[in-house]
Amino acid sequence: MSERWLWTQKEDIGPPPRFGHVMEYEAARQRAVLFSGYMSGGVTPTDTWEWDGDAWTQVADIGPFGRYWASMAYDDSRQRLVLFGGVGVVGASWQRLVDTWEWNGAEWTQVADIGPLGRLGSCMAYDTVRQRTVLFGGDVLEPTPGYSNETWEWDGTEWTQIDDTGPPGRAYAAMVFNRERECLVLSGGGVVVGSNWQPLGDTWEWGAETGWVKRQDVGPRSWDSPNMVYTAEHTVLVGTPPSRTGAVQTWEWDSRLWTQRQDMGPLARDSTVLTYDSQRDRVVLFGGQLSQIGAVSFPLLGDTWELAITEQ
Predict the structure, then answer these.
(1) CB environment 31-41: b (16+ within 10 A), e (fewer)
(2) Closest by alpha carbon to 150, among 139, 159, 137?
(3) What pLDDT, in 10s, does the model give residues 224-241?
(4) What are 249's strand-pairing partners?
(5) Given its phi and psi angles, is residue 151 left (phi above 0), alpha (psi -120 to 50 degrees) or beta?
(6) Which pTM was predicted?
(7) d(CA 296, CA 275)
(8) For residue 40, what are the CA distances in angstroms to 45, 129, 176, 267, 270?
(9) How far is Cα 263 from Cα 216, in angstroms, rounded to an integer?
(10) Mean per-residue pLDDT for 260-279?
């Protein structure tokens, strides 16, 4: 029996167009929750939105500083969304942020202002076995400008650095926790070499007993900020093809190899977000910035898509 991977556009109204936002599925309330991002005119809103599979609803307009390229994950044991870092305006200047916030389904609460140094473009996922939110990498200014290779974890009370070996430092990588194999999977991201952006295609896994282990050198080489989800059966990555033309590419990781499953669907875009709606068994994508080579402009997007994986 074969599988069908099909993208469908669900909506073109809802949150205003943006890129660099964060979105995660809140399993307790069966909603995908979206926060902030970068909008036209350099605006970083403080709005929080929910997607229930049919429509978007704005549920808050106060909370953390507006920001983009932050990191967010869902703490399943405590039923909280955890938000860290990013870049936002503090006073009159753009700064890398160091604050940690949690969303309980009704309001945001700041829970820490110490932990990892300020950064943007780090990746974060929740380890359901160890009940920890794990963060890796990011674009930092301290102790020197560059890309972090640090691994940190949040236990609901404080941050602890648990590793500084493994994947080379990078920003905008994708990371997810594979519940079946009980390990984190990290892929892609990139670094600036000289004045050019260099996307990476390596894949790593982290387990409590093994630490970081490189699994593959060859895989999706997304032009910008790939996204990854685990659906309970599939580890799915969505990224912009290096050509920056056509549609996003959809890949699957089987713990050994990457296989491209689809090259049709949403237009290729930068800095979009992805999450998995476990109640409806759908992968949800929202927004980003059009990245087509040759385009006259690079508009921000506000479209909502869903990926269904079905047997046929």
Answers:
(1) bbbbbbbbbee
(2) 137
(3) 899 999 998 999 999 999
(4) 239
(5) beta
(6) 0.97
(7) 30
(8) 11, 40, 30, 19, 15
(9) 22
(10) 95
- Quickly state the pLDDT bin for 257 (edges 50, 70, 90): very high
Which residues contact residue 134 at a Cβ distance below 8 angstroms, ignoring those fewer than 6 apart? 124, 125, 126, 127, 151, 152, 153, 154, 162, 175, 177, 184, 206
At 41 the three-state DSSP class reads helix
pLDDT band per the 50, 70, 90 thresholds, residue 102: very high
Q: Do residues 220 and 268 make contact, with C-beta atoms less than 8 angstroms apart? A: no
**What values do phi and psi take at 41, rounded to 5?**
80, 10
Q: Write out the two tokens for 193.
A: 């070499």
Burial class (CB in 10 A: 0-12, 13-18, 19+), 178: buried
Confidence of residue 291 (pLDDT cuts 50, 70, 90): confident
Q: Domains in the chain and their CATH numbers?
A: 3-311 (2.120.10.80)
User: Could you tell me the strand order of the sheet in which 146-147 lies?
Assistant: 119-120, 139-140, 146-147
Q: What is the CA radius of gyration of the chain?
A: 18
What is residue 296's predicted lDDT score, i.e. its pLDDT? 67
pLDDT one-digit tens code per residue, 38-76: 999 999 999 999 999 999 999 999 999 999 999 999 999
| Residue whose tokens read 């929910």 | 50
φ, ψ (nearest 5 deg) of residue 136:
-135, 140
